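Service request form, structural biology core

Requester: graduate student, group of Dr. S.
Request type: structure prediction, single chain
Budget code: on file
Notes: please return the result as structure tokens.

Sequence provided:
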Amino acid sequence: MFPLFETFKIISGKINNLEYHQERIDYSIKLFYGKSNNNNIVLKNLQLPVNDTSEILRCRFNYNYEKYELNLNPYIKSKINSLKIIYDDKIDYPLKYSDRNRLNELFELRENCDDILICKRGLITDTTIANVVFYDGLRFVTPRVPLLKGTFRKYLLDKGVIFEKDISIHELVKYEYLILINALREFDLNDRIYIKDIK
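Core staff response, request fulfilled:
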């Protein structure tokens, strides 16, 4: 019923980076259904609960061309300290599909690591839940072709905080650490995963 979804950070009843989420919804509807959104799904019109300012809510927004549903929960940030490299040259996830079966199957291969880092055709892409940003000692770079072009990733690119670059599996040794980012995970320099913790 709802083949697509978005995940929002809700603070004081407002969607963080609303414009970027709306842009991706419009793009996804156009690509998936072959027609424009036509104001069917408009985020600024949502009635959201005004929560305590100290609490961050995680909103899963399931939608199709005409309808949507909301699931709201307090956001608890998962701690990710280690990643296992998993190879899959055929995986394809250009839209935020509700069907995450292949990602879930790959996640089960993580062994004793917290998540996986997916390598497609020799190039680093994403983890199962986040885009990745690497630090090379001079600047922060993110894979030029991720599995999914995240909204917060685009925000940081637009602000000139991070830059796109093809990152091959063999180039990982050139980097000091990486940071995971998504709509709920901020660009936090204290939340580093060092290259030595990638298996």
